[in-house]
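Batch 3, record 17
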Amino acid sequence: MDLNFTPEEEAFRRQVRAWFDDNVATSGLRGVDRVADRDRGAVEKLKAWQRRVHQAGYLALSWPKEYGGQALDPVRQSIANEEMVRARAPALIGAMGIGMIGPTLITWGDDAQKARYLPKILTAEEIWCQGYSEPGAGSDLASLRTRAEIVGDEFVVNGQKVWTSNAHFADMMFCLVRTDPDAPKHRGISYILIDMKSPGITVKPLVQMTGDRGFNEVFFDNVRVPRRNLVGKLNEGWMVANATLFHERNMLGSTTTTRMLFNRLKALAASTMRGGRPLARDPVFRQRLADLEIRVDAMKYHMLRQLTDSIRGRNPGLGAWVNKLVGTELNHDLATAAMEAMGDYALLARDDGHALDRGFWPHEWMFTLGLVIGGGTSHIQKNIIAERGLKLPKSR
Amino acid sequence: MDFGLSEEQEQLRESARAFLAGECPAPRMREIVGGAAGFAPELERRIAQLGWPGMIVPEPFGGAGLGMLDLAVLLEECGYAALPGPFPFSAAIAAFALAAGGSEEINARWLKPLAAGDAIGTVAIAEANDSLIPGELATVARPAPAGAVLNGIKMFVPYAQAANFIVVAARTGPGPREVALFVVPADAPGVKIRPLKALDLTRRMALVELDGVLVEPAARLAGDAALYDRVLDAGALAIAADSIGGAQRALDMAVEYAKVREQFGKPIGSFQAIKHAAAEIVADLEPTRALLWYAAYAFDAIPREAPRAVAMAKARAGDVYSRAAGKAVLMHGGIGFTWEHDIHFWFKRARLNESLFGAPPFHRERVAALGGY
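Prediction for the assembled complex:
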């Protein structure tokens, strides 16, 4: 155990910090992280921002060099990520590419796929979305019915996806389709890459409970996809899908974001008067704040432990299965505590003139609940921990 | 940046797990706690042969000179086995107090034999009012020509009945921080030890009466209030480590049972109600283990950060162990409520751990104060 960074890592951190401090300030995008902000104009600005970060050399540091990475150990990436959050840099518009399909292709893609897709993920030339859930296939994802038939050198896709974040501006989709309807449900699925500009794709917006347009329904009507866009083997897409889901469970929150959320809650409790004293001095609320801060720090060290495992090339073990469950619930609990601290002000819509902090917390409270659901609800996460982590027998 | 156990620490953990599974499996633990002393001197001797009592004792006094993280790894395993006996209190808390504040003379007399397994120490802080705040202690040390005279009554003293010496916290003046620690031989004139009947059968506690006990000048450990704070943190850390191990054991027992117990024609572990309870224990436990490791590391490497880190680890580990043990009992159903099944030993040990050296609300208040809320 040694929590000191090497002098080279410290120098790297100073350099990254200086870069983000300068560049976030001039970007005009500080703190832009809401899905609602992603109208067309914002999308272009956010793409330009990601390109700038990539050109500075702070994206995908651990990816292989030939695909735009720097083949560095994960410590550098974790330093860069922390500094990005600390400087309140805008959220990366290509996060699903960088965090999900990119690592999946590095493991499962063929050379042509890696060369074709990976560099454009980093430059934000291609934004990706995820075609997993369907109206009849949510938690039971493997029961999906979107059909892909092989005709010549192509898949012909028919069906529907739902809750597809960013589909309204994405260029590509990584998608699960049924290629063998007669096989047991997990064995007839393939993982394919679909160009969102293909004829036959219709994207219809869905409005989230926050009032924002963040996700969509996507319809496929005889959409033709080249056979070379198959990742892994035909009918063996479930394994590839699980690799992506594993990456997803680990990208849903940075512990630096959580720490900043806690600091914001603490400031709120210090400035909110209740019964003649700051709420942070109310013995009940104070206990709750401390409990939340303890959970925030526990998660920080929990993730450091896994970072160390990955540097050492070790299997992270049971611990890695809980990240999504614990991380998303903690963020939502922080927002819930803030809502209580705000009293009746929590009830105001963000465009009301009396809304506190331009409605940050009510939005955060709802948005973080979405993350508890997305990528597998907490209930599903508990099944996964129990079945894959603890090896309890399958329910089904 | 390296947040994890060293190879030596991993080995220590594995060998401790294997040793305690062999020497103190649940049936043996039941036998030991059923005896009059509540611990097994021959097992303590075997433990001494492994060098465990001297783990954090400096080498000049016969110890291994290792750190709190090494000891925490070991104490996790003691908690896993629900090891009865004074070992953790002697090797972690009394040993730390002497190593940090004892003179050459006092350490030659007590610390050296402690490291060799020839003496047992314990620590006496709380009193009838159950407070850990120095200004609220009533035991006093008055200067005397040949040292100091101690008067007062200590409560909840772990294994005082087995100890050769007791590290006693006493007021040295009226100020809220005027407190010091004194090394008192358990057989000194004026010391009376009255056993308490504890709910947790794997631990013994006593009331210690100090009636005009005269101690020599060297008995007063250097560091006074600052040492008092550190010793309290060493105690909190030791108990937190035991709690992590205990919660792991409760989980393992419940999961094991859920795989074999059948109802409605299948193992109960295939039902989501049981799965979710088990998963919730894992979700509580894993991040808390990282928090404990950080606190144990900070205790030696970053003392400035240690009070906050230890307070966090103790508060969380206390909550997590009690919750885990409660869920584990429930997952066992009726058999879990019987005396015959072993789970109740961990359930009760969790409750003692939650409270001893500061319950979660006490440590959360420290976190708040140290965080400037």
